[in-house]
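WARN retry 2 of 3 for item q-0093 after timeout on previous attempt; input resubmitted unchanged.
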Amino acid sequence: MKNFPGPALCVIVTLLAASPAGARGMVPSLCRGGEEVVFSCNLADAPKAVALCAARGPRGQYLQFRIGRPGALELEFPPRREDYLTLFSYTHVFPHGADDSSLRFMNGATSYELFSQIRMPPAYPPSTRRGLHVMAPGRAVRTHVCGAGAVDRLSQLEGILGR
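OK item q-0093 returned
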């Protein structure tokens, strides 16, 4: 995890604001007014959504993960928004024919990982897979795959949260 000065989050918000406006409205998001969507999707295997939201304003700046439904969140992390720098870890790897991004964090003993996996020819048949891995002690890894219409801007965290 890499610490960065406060103004770095404004880069995230600026990049997200410059993204096509239509992309923001493609799926219902758990992000609130004044927040930008970094990642958002409805889960294909459950009637809920996941989102990673970014904001910068008079009350500070933050990244925050959410899972659940509007008005019925199951998890909002981190609980203290100002702690986001020390709690999130971003990885981006792009071996031949692949482009993988992920954002990880621990909540107690449970690990969460938002992921984006893109496969490209000629090494692979073209495909895109996005979702959430949940890893709890003593349990099998649970993978929740996003349904169609996901908003994925995880790669814009490159150089900000680092590896």
